[in-house]
Please model this.
Amino acid sequence: MESVNIKKLANILNISISTVSKALRDSHDISKETKEKVIALASELNYQPNPHASSLRKAKSKTIAVIIPEIANNYFSLAINGIESIAQEKGYHVLIYLTHESYLKEVALIRLLHGGRVDGILISLSSTTTDYSHLEEVQGKGLPLVFFDRVCENLNTVSITTDDYESAYNATKHLIGQGCKKIAHLMISKNLSIGNKRLKGYLKALEELELPVDETMIINCTNEEETNFELIKILLQEKRPDGIFAAVERYAISAYEASKQLNISIPKDLKIISFSNLQTASLLNPSLTTITQPAFDIGRQAATILFRALEEKRYLLKNEHIVFKSELIERESTSK
Amino acid sequence: MESVNIKKLANILNISISTVSKALRDSHDISKETKEKVIALASELNYQPNPHASSLRKAKSKTIAVIIPEIANNYFSLAINGIESIAQEKGYHVLIYLTHESYLKEVALIRLLHGGRVDGILISLSSTTTDYSHLEEVQGKGLPLVFFDRVCENLNTVSITTDDYESAYNATKHLIGQGCKKIAHLMISKNLSIGNKRLKGYLKALEELELPVDETMIINCTNEEETNFELIKILLQEKRPDGIFAAVERYAISAYEASKQLNISIPKDLKIISFSNLQTASLLNPSLTTITQPAFDIGRQAATILFRALEEKRYLLKNEHIVFKSELIERESTSK
Model:
């Protein structure tokens, strides 16, 4: 039987190869009508995305890779448990790789996975990644890839996050509602989609409630705990914020430690809210108000989509962004 | 060149094959003198432990596996960071596999690693593992294996732990010194070397200070948080202990949560000490007295030994137990 390729689909439909390719990738450039025609024909003729992909799909390693920046973070441990709960059902092994926030390490790990060691990849990007060609390369080899949390929205695949912008906006509004007027933001790298969105949500709330934006109150936190601790101490001493919105739970922990050292009383002198899946949030002194992400469910969803791509011949990963809702859990650290 | 095997070594030295084999494994049955003779000759003739091992050592995957029971535990995340710090220097990748405390999963993962996917294994056993033949099997394939934390002391390799017995003894004595008379122990599975030793240290301290042992005050905790929470609540309601020694940090967290729900005041009504690398221990309400293990250093040491076995042809992993000291850090949860 003659193999079906994009060219053949294009010939039959009398449209360009690039249109077929874009339609299969669900590009916004292509009309809904054309997309439906292309997909119907591709399905009818049993079109296989590319020979590499199908050969890899046959030579199953029964293993998927999870690439994450760090391990000492409850969000990731919960997400991994979610991923493993699905992998277990499917009889797959899960390999975990850590990038320690290094772009070069991420590239090296992705290259290591080219060789059929795994059937698919779930990834949350390192904070130093700004070039995505290593990911396009691995997709080119037919290895399905799904993003979660720290995503790249320009790549042609599914990405799963929480409502980072809205949550950051709500977190900041919550601080303002509790009486804060000088709110600092402990920011995670702007390279990251989540860093960018959380910053924007913070700025939007300030703007909407007519609070001035002070650039020196936006702290670009690092991957070094000691550095963050020092940055936060300087912030507290020199800028005397009355509220902190932390983009990541370990920044909030550093803020607690710095406040303790400087005898700043939470929540009296300083209110703190943080994105966090910290198990001990309710046991801290004072208990920490959090934006809690459904990390386990996100892991399950990411794995479910990856397995669909692995199991269903005709299921193509396309550019799609799935958003889960976070929950603001009010505790003592922001009480009036 | 004729290959050098154990038989040849035995012939030249005029001793039995079994003596040579035992000498190379550093068995206690063999005199120091004989061992030295065997090792000197093996070294002179460039003896390679076994053909499987040497072939694997040639076909390097430049990858090591770390097999651990769970990820949401600060001990393991720190240990992994220690392991990765060494692997990074050596240009190796680290794969992390989780057993979720399942013996069957551990066996499946170990079997998966037979095929040359990794060059060596660092493992901390699952709490349901009581048979070790899967580990002997992988050693038989020439894949070096080093234990850390949850070890099997009968296997012919290096195992690295902290001074679990002494630390548990000191923890219990600390509670007694702070005035506790009815001390409960939240125990981790007796299957585990660490579970057994921590229990024995607790019992020894009670005995030495002439406190009665009440079996119903020793709670065999599970891998389910909800179950542990219920078990601890029943313990607190029915047995009214004035002290708790927790073998693992998540049991201490459950004890905090149960105390909170029952309005039991820590440390006034109940003092708590726990093995823990919890980053927020000092920020809890009240701050938690811990036995803190040098987890990062343990990871580094385990990796260093594994890499020695990978890099030095003549370095054989032998039955050796390396012990690191833990530190008792006194905080509010056990104050008078």
About this structure: Chain A touches chain B through 35 residues (CB under 8 Å). Chain A has three domains: 6-47, 52-162+295-325, 164-293+328-334. Residues 6-47 of chain A form one domain. Residues 157 and 318 of chain A are 5 Å apart (CA to CA).
